[in-house]
Amino acid sequence: MNVSNNKSGSGKNAFGALAYLVIDDFENFRLSMRHMLRSCGAENIELVANARLAVQYCTYNHVDVVLCDYNLGEGKSGQHILEELRYKKLLKRSSLFLMVTSDASREMVMGAREYQPDAYLTKPINHAMLETRLGSLITQRSALLPINREIDRENYPEAISLCIHAIPRQPRYKTWLMKTLAELYFLLGDLTHSIKVYDEVLRQRELSWARLGHSKILLTNHNYDEAIKNLRRLIAAHPDYMEAYDLLAESLERQNKPRQAQDILERATDHSPNALLRQIHLAELAEANQDMDTAVRAWRRSVALGAHSIHDSPAYHLALGNTLCDLSEGDTGTEGAQLASEAFSVLGNMEKRFSDNDSLALRAQIVQCRIYAGQEEAHKAEAVLDKIRPALGNPRALESETDLDYAKTLFRLGYGDEAKTLLNDLATQFFDNPTVLKKIENLLDEPVGFRMKVKARRLNRDGIEAFESGNLQEAASIFTKALEMIPDHPALNLNQVQVLMKEYELDTANKNLLGLCQHYLSHLAGLPEQHGQYRRYVALQRKLKALTL
Amino acid sequence: MKNRNIDFSMVLALAVHDMKNSLGMLLNSLDELREESKDTLNNSSRFNTLQYEAERIHNDLVQLLGIYRLGNNNLSAHSEEHFVPDFLSEHLARHTSLLNGLGIRCSIEADTINGFFDADLLTGALNNTINNAIRYTRTQIRLTANERNGHLVIAVEDDGPGYPDNMQHTETPSFKSLDFNTGSTSLGLFFASAVAELHSEGDRTGFIKLHNSGQLGGGVFEIWLP
């Protein structure tokens, strides 16, 4: 053998200068890893058996190299440890995190969305393998240390000039240097230089990371069509390149194509079901698209994945409870009852899991009311409502989300006026917050369950179609049906008024039609000025006045 | 009797996955055992056989999984830039203890160049080739890497009897040509050739080449990557 020995002379010193942490649930493996590390020249080696001890150790000690088994049995995995260490900034960029896997399984590599290890080591590992692999990583680490140190200090301009300086001198690390350089320009907001770097790489070779970076800049420059075209090609060539799906979904959303964005994320989660943040994104999109079946599936998965993740939040549990409640509403059969009971247990588990968060009991009860109501258990619903009413009902310093959800419950239990008062107060309080105002508007426009919402929306579309093809009477009767479900919906009322006005133009003797127009417009008497339909409302009011004269 | 709809290839893949992990543990233990009792085991041909055959099964299983993913169109190459000499020495390190045990000399002659390829896939393809070389060589194995006609060419040479005539071609071996009677199923070559084809750049794709005109006089396996 003339290969692995030629480096060990200098390698021994390099190994000896660093602090190591080995994480594995098998004692045998920990000991054998320590044995191998020692014979490479390492001295400062700590062994731990689980995630809790690993995070604890990194909190109080400096670690240069983490060797972490991916599969740690029940509980947190190696990926969770990596996320937690990076999220809590317990690991510097200049440290090395090596994930030890029993195979280079793609699903695992793909699971991660944000945090990736510096390298994967595939079992079985022998001494010679560890020495060469870790040796070259350590050499790389020390070669790039000055740059990583500046990045850790957030001194990006200095890091950039170090990268530029190193590119001709360190051809071995050219990919890393180019990638880092482009990312640093991006961080500084210098998109022109960033895209230049990506393009230079792409001129020589079609590399997926460069194509992704290039697309990201197109997206940041609002060049959505080009970004989408680039990313679709990238995914066609590399169906398991998950970051491309995430970016494509984001581009489609920005282009206001939420349905297509959802399809892309569904494909991504089929490939790689273990990325929590991607599941959450999918759940939110599906919910916005009123696709409750998909939303429930994605929220279920998110809650399950959150169990061991640093990113877990009660918001996901609430969202799951909420969507299950929506789906069970009005279905008193076996399936509905099952969904309702799942919703109850999700909320119960949430309270137990986040027991230090006092506001959650209230949030849970607000949803519980609606679950009972949806299962036609009005007494129980009223009983819970009576319990929570004193704590709610007038806008306080609580989160707007709590009030919005409470208003939803009030609508569902038939206290529409109370809900409207609450929402109006809330709108005054949040007059300068467009996100909250939009949510209030949506709730006031369509204060019904999602099934009815979907039906009403479909009727609205059919009505418009009938109107456009000249079937005025059919259009009017379709809009009437939709308005029976959501009588206060501004766009729907205005659509109906337009149909009736058109009918009147063809039959000016029928003054009755004008009376009906007045009737529908009066539904919108309290429409606030900032509402999206307000200008149309004023215009039609004026037109009606002119016709009546 | 209810007709159960079992996806047999999926069941197989899961079973293979499990076997492969077990074998990984076994190989790990073998390595440790050799380390602990160097003096007695390094000359034990039975121990070498044990390790060689376990390694071989392990490779076969890795390939089976790879081919399963290939069949599901779930396998694609993620080319990254690698410093070729480092890649080859890291790769060879995996086989060091067995090579030493068998008394086979091994050398790397790689130009100091960077190559673009998917390291995981190429490792899978080369493992099999090296194992094959270990089986057929007499005294030594040579790994080379250089650039030819705009391709990165990685070659594994041995000083054994060489490839039979009917195997010396560059076409893709297909499943149809796999011959179970000769005992040589060429599964490894099929996989290596699939890995080569997953690597493309512009309109060029990778390929493999087998011949007997190397420096050592035995078989030469070449993988050409654009």
Mean pLDDT of chain B: 81
What is the highest CATH level, the class of the domain at 8-152 in chain A? Alpha Beta
**Greatest interface and its participating residue counts:** A-B, 35 and 42 residues
Which strand order spans the largest sheet of chain A, edge to edge or round the barrel? Answer: 2-1-3-4-5
* Biggest beta-sheet profile of chain A: 5 strands, parallel
The assigned structural class of chain B equals alpha+beta
Shape of chain B: globular
CATH superfamily of the largest domain in chain B: Histidine kinase-like ATPase, C-terminal domain
- Number of helix segments of chain A? 27
Percent of residues of chain B in helical segments?
A: 40-55%
Runs of chain B in which pLDDT lies below 50 for 5 or more consecutive residues are none
Strand content of chain A: under 5%
Q: State the shape of chain A.
A: elongated
How much strand content do the residues of chain B show?
A: 15-25%
Count of strand segments of chain A:
5
> What value does the Rg of chain A take, in angstroms?
30 Å
Strand order of the largest sheet of chain B: 2-4-5-9-8
**Do you know the CATH topology of the domain at 8-152 in chain A?**
Rossmann fold
**Uncertain spans of chain A, ≥5 residues at pLDDT below 50?**
1-12
CATH architecture of the largest domain in chain B: 2-Layer Sandwich
Your description of this structure?
Chain B: This is histidine kinase. The complex is a heterodimer of chains A (549) and B (226). Chain A has helices spanning 8-16, 27-40, 51-60, 78-87, 106-111, 127-152, 156-169, 174-187, 191-204, 208-220, 224-237, 242-254, 258-271, 276-288, 292-306, 314-328, 334-353, 359-374, 378-388, 400-412, 416-429, 434-445, 450-468, 472-485, 490-506, 512-522, 534-548; strands at residues 19-23, 44-48, 65-69, 96-101, 119-122. Chain A is mainly α. The N and C termini of chain A lie far apart (103 Å). Chain A is elongated. A five-stranded parallel β-sheet of chain A has the order 2-1-3-4-5, sandwiched between helices. Residues 1-12 of chain A have low confidence and may be disordered. Chain A has 27 helices and five strands. Chain B is of the alpha+beta class and 226 residues long. Chain B has two domains: 8-71; 80-225, Histidine kinase-like ATPase, C-terminal domain (Heat Shock Protein 90). Chain B has seven helices and nine strands; from the N terminus they run αααβααββαββαββββ. The longest helix of chain B has 29 residues, at 8-36. The termini of chain B are far apart. The mean pLDDT of chain B is 81. The interface between A and B is large, with 35 and 42 residues.
